Amino acid sequence: MIEVNHLVKRYGNALAVDDLSFTVEEGQIYGFLGPNGAGKSTTMNIMTGYIASTSGDVFIDGHNILDEPEKARKCIGYLPEIPPLYTDMTVEEYLSFAAELKKIPKDKIRRMLDESMELTGLLEMRSRLIKNLSKGYRQRTGLAQAILGYPKIIILDEPMVGLDPKQIIEIRDLIRKLGKNHTVILSSHILSEISAVCDQILIISHGRLAANDTPENLEKLMEGSNTLNLTVKGDAPSLHRILKQTEGIVSYSVSSSEEKGAWDAVIKTAPGSDLRERLFYLLASQKMPILNLQQSRVSLETVFLELTEEDSPKKDSEESSFAGKIPDSNERSDVS
User: Fold this and answer.
1) Rounded distance between C-alpha atoms, residue 219 and residue 93, angstroms
2) Separation of alpha carbons 261 and 178, rounded Å
3) CA distance 79 to 60
4) pTM for this predicted structure
5) For residues 189 and 158, what is the distance between their CA atoms, to the nearest angstrom?
């Protein structure tokens, strides 16, 4: 349905999109996720033909957006982050104007206007001036414009920004309805929006694709980062030695605890590893009582933060002397 191949966009010396490639399949709702400034809106503007790329290609239903812009755009309904509304028009006047711009045959305009307003819940607002509408109804008007002409693909850039909780739920429900008959691409930096409505998630960071998978598989992707939070009474060197030599631990850090004579450890475990019982017996054999042991599961928020985190040098701290990356298995020795 959509192919993005080695897309690059530069603004002077600034690189907004960096060799970005992905494919959008028909009949799904895609979430385009990333922090502010990641390149989401730039990529969407290129996909819809609003701006040109520095290099790379975008194919919409087989049509190159640069070589066949009219044929490609006929396949797309687009709602920018700020809907391009003419606020002195009524809802119906604006949609009729948009239908003419889209070259919808005149004998079909009335039916399409009624259907788009019914789908977006605007029938009762058809005679209202857009400037008198709430933020939520303005978004609905922008959505109604996007679906005029029954495009195969609907692209929505931050459609829920500035909406109240009730309006967000209403727009989510509307996006789900659209997903039954259209391929939908939804851009956002708000995780709850994406996970609530999307079948597939593309995470973009610094103009590059960081991940492309279902929400469930993305969480499984980070299973190796499941975390144990441990508070142990005893001496730090012994705790450090035990953690270093325990198979299944990927990395860990140890710091002073609020409990007197105790240490807190944050332990990241390997996929499928449940080390609670093993650590209990190892620490008990060294007469080091466990005061607290909690296991936390990875969330989509964790995946997002891990995949979009900027590389930066770690600051020195008093934890550093007891923090370590676990060596390869041939470097370990058994703990007795």
Assistant:
1) 46
2) 59
3) 17
4) 0.68
5) 8
d(CA 333, CA 244): 9
Q: Residue 244 and residue 325: Cα distance in Å, rounded?
A: 8
Helix intervals (H) in the chain: 40-47, 69-73, 91-101, 106-119, 135-147, 165-179, 191-197, 215-221, 236-244, 276-285, 300-308
User: Residues 20, 43: contact at Cβ < 8 Å?
Assistant: yes
CA distance 55 to 41: 17
SS3 319: coil
Summarize pLDDT for 98-145 with one digit per residue, the tens: 999 999 999 999 999 999 999 888 999 999 999 999 988 998 999 999
Rg (CA), the chain: 26
Distance CA 245, CA 113 (A): 68
223/177 Cα distance (integer angstroms): 32
* Burial category of 158 from C-beta neighbours within 10 Å (exposed 0-12, middle 13-18, buried 19 and up): buried
Residue 16: Cβ within 10 Å count? 22
Question: Cα–Cα distance between 271 and 258 in angstroms, integer?
Answer: 30
**Cα(179)–Cα(132) distance, integer angstroms:** 29
Pairwise CA distance, residues 113 & 334, whole Å: 73
247 in helix, strand or coil? coil
Phi and psi dihedrals of 279, rounded to 5?
A: -65, -35
**Cβ neighbours of residue 178 closer than 8 Å, sequence gap 6 or more:** 119, 143, 147, 154, 184
Strands 227-233 and 249-256, by their bridges, are unpaired
Q: What is the pLDDT of residues 198-255, one digit of tens each?
A: 999 998 888 888 888 887 777 666 554 578 899 999 999 999 999 998 988 888 999 9
Which structure tokens are listed for 12?
A: 């002077």
pLDDT at position 271 is: 66
Output the six-digit token pair for 131.
Answer: 């400037």
Under the banding of pLDDT at 50, 70 and 90, the label for residue 302 is: low
